[in-house]
Design brief:
Strand order of the largest sheet: 3-2-1-4-5-7-6
Protein name: Ribosomal RNA small subunit methyltransferase H
Shape: globular
Oligomer: single chain
Bound molecules: S-adenosylmethionine
Number of helices: 14
Order of helices and strands: HEHEHEHEHHHHHHHHEHEHE
Number of strands: 7
Largest sheet: 7 strands, mixed
Radius of gyration: 21 Å
Subcellular location: Cytoplasm
Family: Belongs to the methyltransferase superfamily. RsmH family.
Structural class: alpha/beta
Helix content: 40-55%
Keywords: Cytoplasm, Methyltransferase, rRNA processing, S-adenosyl-L-methionine, Transferase
Function: Specifically methylates the N4 position of cytidine in position 1402 (C1402) of 16S rRNA.
Strand content: 5-15%
Length: 310
């Protein structure tokens, strides 16, 4: 069973302004929560394309979309190859693109994938089970300074340097193999008073290592650019983020693409090179309601931003 509670489902799909005969891409298919709702807005001439790098998600989505009335393409790939994926389907431009970033609940909850400190499992954390880099390799081979950097930047972990030092001290004795071992090392590295408050002491570090293993920020930055390039005029991109760095990438990219020409009005031609490409629909991000957060606590850090291609 693939149980993932879809976040900001109606807000995101309404934000795409789905036309019954349009072509829409869900870059983060997961359990197809958003994709199914998009498909329900489409007629027989409409198309929805779902991309995921996780085979389990594709399998679940296949079941979930069995009875929809539009054309469906499900593709196993990293969304950083978005342009190539569209070209392989004979498409250059589409009418809407969605990103619902991060991991799905089954990835987190299925202990054996090594994403969670709640289950003892081999250190893995790959969303794509065939990808070359695992959490085991990051934890056991990356230099101490690089570990400290990712823990601090991607995890906003204030004890990043202490944790990195402890990891390196442990792996000198023997390799760190499991999520349980890693969680214990992190716990020991954090001073006792800080351990007693807030979320699980390993939460930030596990998030940071997962982001590094899957190269999540670079993949998103590249895919967002390709998404904007690949929209028809009037087409929309909707992005749900769960991490401040992802949200910053989205916000800055949208702002950059909205910039207008700043040449003086008497210049015969534009020399600044700035022409707006997007209109930002959400000046402030859309957040989940208190009710949604109560029903699905994993929605609490979600932010939805939407922009329209000019
Ligand atoms: C939050 S879940 C999406 C849930 C989905 N919207 C739903 O309602 O069921 C994110 C999904 O995106 C996938 N994913 C994350 N980064 C990806 C990438 N770079 N390329 C392809 N899939 C990715 C993950 O494997 C995961 O299944």
């Amino acid at each position: 069973m693939f149980q993932h509670e879809t976040v900001l489902k109606h807000e995101a799909v309404e934000g795409l302004n789905v036309r019954p005969d349009g072509v829409y891409v869900d870059c983060t298919l997961g359990g197809a929560g958003h994709t199914r709702l998009i498909a329900e807005h489409l007629g027989p001439a409409g198309t929805v394309i779902g991309i995921d790098q996780d085979d389990a998600a594709l399998q679940a989505a296949h079941e979930r979309l069995r009875d929809v009335g539009c054309r469906v393409h499900l593709i196993k790939s990293n969304f950083r190859r978005l342009k190539e994926i569209l070209a392989s389907l004979g498409l250059e431009r589409v009418d809407g693109i969605l990103f619902d970033l991060g991991v799905s609940s089954p990835q987190l909850d299925k202990g054996e994938r090594g994403f969670s400190y709640h289950h003892d499992a081999p250190l893995d954390m790959r969303m794509d089970p065939e990808a070359p880099l695992t959490a085991r390799e990051v934890v056991n081979t990356w230099p101490e300074a690089e570990l400290a950097r990712i823990l601090s930047q991607y995890g906003e972990e204030r004890f990043a340097r202490r944790i990195a030092r402890m990891i390196v001290n442990h792996r000198r004795v023997s390799p760190i193999e499991t999520t349980g071992e890693l969680a214990d090392i992190i716990k020991d590295a954090i001073p006792a008073p800080a351990r007693r408050t807030g979320p699980h002491p390993a939460r930030r570090s596990f998030q940071a290592i997962r982001i590094a293993v899957n190269d999540e920020l670079n993949a998103f930055q590249s895919a967002l650019q390709q998404a904007i390039d690949g929209l028809n005029p009037g087409g929309r991109v909707a992005v749900i983020t769960f991490h401040s760095l992802e949200d910053r990438i989205c916000k800055r990219t949208f702002q950059e693409k909205e910039k207008r020409c700043v040449c003086p009005p008497d210049f015969p031609v534009c020399v600044c090179g700035q022409q707006p490409v997007l209109r930002v629909i959400t000046k402030k991000p859309i957040l989940p309601s208190e009710e949604e957060i109560r029903e699905n606590p994993r929605a609490r850090s979600a932010k939805l931003r939407i922009a329209e291609k000019l």
